[in-house]
Amino acid sequence: MAVKMQAVKAIGSKAGTRKNVLRFMWKYKTLYVISVPGIVYFFIFKYVPLLGSVIAFQDYNIFQGILDSKWVGLAHFKRMFAHYDFLNILNNTLLIGLYDLLIAFPAPIVLALLLNELRLVLYKRVLQTIVYMPHFLSWVIVSGIAIGILSPSTGAVNQFISGLGFEPIYFLGEESWIRTVLIGSGIWRDSGYGTIIFLAALAGVNPDLYEAAEVDGASRWRQTLSITIPALLPTIMIMFLLHIGKFLDFGFERVYVFLNPLNKNNGEILDTYIYQVGLLGQQFSYTTAIGLFKSVVGLALIVIGNTLSKKTTGESLY
């Protein structure tokens, strides 16, 4: 009898929970309707294509299709790690990704802190607009600007270097400079736009905290360290976790437009390699294996970073 009563209570609890969920969904039905296009987009263009990852384990033939292509197991992954070109390109990708994480990721945070200190509203808005604008330029335009500025004969940078009595530097013709150019151009293009999220987080800080600190005699620098940065920390951690998830996805277009035979050894990354070998060389299974490897690494980094963040700061993606 007691067991039956418990079963009845469990069924009633489940029915009540279902009704609460349906009631909640009906209450916010407008938001669910608005989210439908986004859900459909991600389903069609993100989740359905995941089924094609199976060709990483096949010797895929476009005329035979996925169902009839020969299965080769982990052969493409073995080839990937054994090929000398791949190891060099993986090293380039890791180094550029690390430089981007250490140098480019903090840039929007620093810029947001500086903009937040401006008290003249008109000047602040004009400056924000100026630093946002490069984000809306394509990488083709950005590369054209960079090539013009860094030109060894007519570029402004080399004009300045020559004026100091030094020899001009062919920045895009020396492999030792290509990583610096890639990171520097990315900071110039995207750091201003990246400040939007951090400025929005700063707008939510209670002004009373600054007033209390000022009464206690805290300087602006001390207020930044004790109030502003701790208030930004949750947002920084979330953005950091999202950033490391695409650690190996530096971007095809932002690298390809700067590559040439003189700097390719230090500049080619996995995305440009996939383009060369997969699309131009039509080695679809091999490059799918590389893409799957990138996805697994990104997932592992997110899981590890999320776990560490939850234990140390209490902030996490899930």
SSE order: HHEHEHHHHHHHHHHHHH
What's the architecture of the largest domain in CATH terms? Orthogonal Bundle
Biggest sheet features = 2 strands, antiparallel
Q: What is the SS-derived class?
A: mainly alpha
Classify the fold: give the CATH topology of the largest domain: MetI-like fold
**What's the tally of helices?**
16
Distance between the first and last residues' Cα: 41 Å
The overall number of domains is 2
User: What percent of residues adopt helix (DSSP H or I)?
Assistant: over 70%
Percent of sequence in beta strands:
under 5%
Alpha-carbon Rg, integer: 26 Å
CATH class assignment of the largest domain: Mainly Alpha
- Unreliable residue stretches: none
In the CATH hierarchy, what is the superfamily of the largest domain? MetI-like
Structure characterization notes:
This is Protein lplB. It contains 16 helices and two strands. The chain is 72% helix and 1% strand. The two termini are 41 Å apart. The model has no long low-confidence stretch (mean pLDDT 87). α12 packs antiparallel against α16 and α15 packs antiparallel against α16. It has two domains: 1-73; 74-312, Orthogonal Bundle (MetI-like fold). The chain is mostly helical and 318 residues long.
Brief sketch in words of this structure:
It holds the Pfam family BPD_transp_1. By secondary structure, the chain is mainly α.
Descriptive terms for the model:
318 residues, 16 helices, 1% strand, two-stranded antiparallel sheet, 2 domains, mainly alpha, MetI-like fold
